[in-house]
Amino acid sequence: MKFFKRMQELDRRWIYMIIALAIIIPLVIPFDSDNLTTPPTENLYQMIDSFAGREDRAILMSFAHDASTMPELFPMEVAILRHCFERNIKVFTFSNSALGAPIIDYAINTVKDEYPHIESGVHYCNFGFKPNLFAMVIGMGDNIATTMNVDAEGRKVETLPIMRGITNYTEMNLVVEFSGSVAGGTWIVYARPKFGLNVAVGVTAVMAADQYPYLQSGQLIGMLSGLKGAAEYEKMVDIFAKNNQSFSREKLNDPSVREMIRITTQQVASFSPDEFAKFLDKYPQHQGLLEQYKVDRDGKVEINWTQIPPEHAEQLGFFAMDELQRQANHIKYAFKTARVGMNAQSVAHIVMILFIVVGNLGYFAQKLSEKK
Amino acid sequence: MKKTIPMMVVMIGGLVWLFWVFSPHYLMQEDFLNKFFIPWSWAMIPPATILGIVSLSMMHNAKIRRRAHKWQYSFFFFAGFITITLAGFFGGTQKGGLYMWMFENMQMPMSATMFALLAFYMASAAYKAFRARSPEATVLLLAAIIVMLAQVPIGTRISRFLPNISQWILDVPNLASKRGIMLGVGLGSIATSLKILLGIERSYLGGGD
């Protein structure tokens, strides 16, 4: 009984230390895990993916949060931007909060580093900070270019190539709002009934329960809930968008996709002889260099991209190195942060549950001894 | 007069918006909204911003002059405000400038750190206060454990049924209670709005009669 009493009086600092270790260790030592996808995330993914390659369709991302909620919301934003860039989906970004504007730049820069062919004003357009959300929401229902007037770089929106085929919500038919508190309110109340705009949200885990009534009524077509929602989206981008494929439930449930979603470093790019020949044809000037690192194994051609020294990697260039990493199913850190975070969250949740159980055991043991 | 005119402004303003919501007439949708309200609401933003800056500066200035409680922190307001404003004005807000550098290396980690402290307080509260003292608390505790486990990959390895049970908790009991609260809040808001529009509720005018 003394043990339980002492446990009840455990100093808070021990609890803080255990939680810190439970979070830090899985972040430092990554391990592969699988995040099962949920219908709200799948629905949003499919809606965005249905706009792939269409000149007359676009999505709008509304950054309605500040830096404090970035650990949960930023991976969602990166995953959706990546989805759009992979699948050639036009994307607009804006924030009605001055604190959200730098987050847009940071998110775009994070993804754009990996997609050098993506151009501002052509594939995406950042409207930047625009105050007065109500006026924006209503105005864009009439005409996006006249409402936004200029983008974050000061260019007239109506002159940008991205605006070809895009006038109002009939074309820019989906808004995804990211918020650390109540999300999607203005869009649901004004833009959805008046203009038929599809609305989705990305919220922190603590706010997710509040959104369920809107999901059930169909006012929200999808939702990303906390880091888990971001991890689910990252996973779908790696399985489908990265391979330029549409969503398929059969594929999602197939055990073979596990190879595509490993978050540990994947080193070996494995080609069939035909695939390797095609790969060499793309980079004829680097054939000698690539042949130098290839290994023939069980009828396959393998290249360990981590063994290519930086000077040779630079010589091969971004696109060849990127293709090698894709063939190896290697996922860059910026595109797996939510899944790395979910590992830490796994351990933290288990530790918290243990805390609850031990705390309750101590409580009942103490009560029992008091009765005696 | 001191109360009648403000009351009239509120009543007319409220009724105009009511008409805007329910009437598809050109006068409301185009003339009122697009030609009157939206340009004026934009025009109001710069003066409102200046008012906010002046008010905040005056408050911190007064705090420093009076040596009020924790007055030293007001210097941080002026330092942060002036530095980031100048960085934005002269260096631009794009990547490569001082503004973005300060955002990435100062504001972002500091804000995220404050938010992350929540995990520590939650763990401590879970250990010290989350007790199955009553049947209701026990239900809450069990629901919390199931949802927490189902949220993470380890939970789905423990049992493949956990995600379904968790989703049911969110879809049925959680949804029912949330909808009940929202309906209550909604009906309450409508009742209060009507009372204000009809001049029954006047406490927002301040003072007694």
Percent of residues of chain A in beta strands? 5-15%
Structural class of chain B: mainly alpha
- Report the total helices of chain A: 16
Largest sheet of chain B: none
Q: What is the first-to-last residue Cα distance of chain B?
A: 12 Å
Placed side by side, the strands forming the largest sheet of chain A appear as 3-2-1-4-5-6
**What pattern of helices and strands is seen along the backbone of chain A?**
HHHEHEHEHHEHEHEHHEHHEEHHH
Rg of chain A, alpha carbons: 24 Å
C-alpha-based Rg of chain B, rounded: 26 Å
Percent in strands of chain B: under 5%
Helix content of chain A: 40-55%
| Strands of chain B, total number | 0
What is the residue-mean pLDDT of chain A, rounded to a whole number?
92
Alpha-beta classification of chain A: alpha/beta
Q: What percentage of residues of chain B falls in helices of 4 or more residues?
A: over 70%
User: What overall geometry of chain A do the principal axes of the alpha carbons give?
Assistant: flat
Based on the structure, what is the oligomeric state of the protein chains?
heterodimer
Number of helices of chain B: 7
- The low-pLDDT segments of chain A are none
The beta-strand count of chain A equals 9
